[in-house]
Amino acid sequence: MTAAAPIALSMGDPSGIGPEIALLAWLRRKAGDRPFILLGDPDHLSALAHRLGLPVPVTACAPEEATRVFPAALPVAPLAARVTGAPGAPDPRDAPATIEAIERGVELVRAGRAHALVTNPISKDNLYKAGFKHPGHTEFLAELAERFFAAQARSVMMLWSPELAVVPATIHVSLRQAIADLSCDLLVETGRIVARDLAARFAIAAPRLAFAGLNPHAGENGAMGREDIEIVAPAVAQLRAEGYDVRGPLPPDTMFHAAARARYDAAICMYHDQALIPIKTIAFDSAVNVTLGLPFIRTSPDHGTAYDIAGQGTADPASLIAALDLAARLASADAAS
């Protein structure tokens, strides 16, 4: 991989705000920022820039040309699939282009033509209508790791911000299914992956992990369910025996205030909303989705497609810019190690 390799940025759902915030992220570029190349449809992006009145010239190019192009124009690597949907009007016919952009990004990283992958938001519902089989981005990326890197991966979703990092042990499933899926083995494996990647990629020498309890007050010693006694506590004990700095199960309602957050580097939560509600409350515009457990770097904005505001010129690129900045930071740490 050359030092000049860009970050690959997938367009996400072209009818959402992904293309719009990509244009805005380029407009807000700063001297010294690592260049990125957008994987998308140049004609669609040019039309969107015109519609929004954004002075963003779009140049179709290969990844190797992105560093040269980036100061004066937004570099775009054209996809084979065309984009048909309009902002705010999702079209299942765009699913092939959405998926191609993600696959192409992983392929570029594997070939050393990009340093990292940043993905814009997708609509799983729209992809499901076109036959997409995965619960979400995170699970799809694990399959791509196997396809392009010949590496078995158990992907773990972490939402990171300077104020708080959280990991949902179960992700895109119902609450009923999340409780059924919880196991000591799942929590131990999740803890290992989080600790390893915090050390290797975030330069935290001895990561401190806090495990949330599943039940109110972490179960009140079994009075409100035995999952914390029979699943969470044994996982914490096993990780401690392996030498990790872990604590829990902790009452979920008292572990996210500022003083509590200062005592750990990442919170391992039992289900999706237990993790995402606190971080979206604390760092809604600056949180970044980071996929751990992969043989490549992947980050993403911590928000969805926002169809309701797409194409209206009101989308905020802050989370995407944070995702690009974090991807560049992690890529630099990888290169230095």
- The chain-level structural class is alpha/beta
Briefly, what CATH class of the largest domain? Alpha Beta
Mean pLDDT, nearest integer? 93
Low-confidence stretches: none
Strand order of the largest sheet: 3-4-2-1-5-12-11-6-7-10-8-9
DSSP summary: helix tally = 12
Computed CA radius of gyration, to the nearest angstrom = 20 Å
Largest sheet: 12 strands, mixed
Question: What number of structural domains do the residues give?
Answer: 2
Share of residues in helices: 25-40%
Strand proportion, as a percent range, falls in 15-25%
- The shape, in one word, is globular
Considering the protein shown, what is the CATH homologous superfamily of the largest domain?
Isopropylmalate Dehydrogenase
First-last Cα distance: 14 Å
CATH level-3 fold name of the largest domain: Isopropylmalate Dehydrogenase
Sketch the topology as an H/E string, one letter per element.
EHEHEHEHEHHEEHHEHEHEHEEH
CATH second-level architecture of the largest domain: 3-Layer(aba) Sandwich
User: Total number of β-strand segments?
Assistant: 12
Features:
alpha/beta; 12 helices; 337 residues; Isopropylmalate Dehydrogenase; twelve-stranded mixed sheet; single chain; 16% strand
Explain how this protein is built.
- With about 325 residues, this protein is α/β, with parallel strands linked by helices.
- The protein has 2 domains: about 1-155 and about 295-335, Isopropylmalate Dehydrogenase; about 165-280, Isopropylmalate Dehydrogenase, CATH 3.40.718.10.
- The protein is built from 12 helices and 12 strands.
- It has helices at about 20-25, 40-50, 65-70, 95-110, 125-130, 135-150, 175-180, 185-200, 225-240, 260, 270-280, 320-335; strands at about 5-10, 35-40, 60, 75-80, 115-120, 155-160, 165-170, 210, 245-250, 265-270, 290, 300.
- The protein has a 12-stranded mixed sheet, with helices on both faces.
- Strand 1 (about 5-10), helix 1 and strand 2 (about 35-40) form a beta-alpha-beta unit.
- Helix 8 crosses helix 9 (about 225-240).
- The longest helix is centred in the last third of the chain and has 19 residues, at about 320-335.
- The chain is globular.
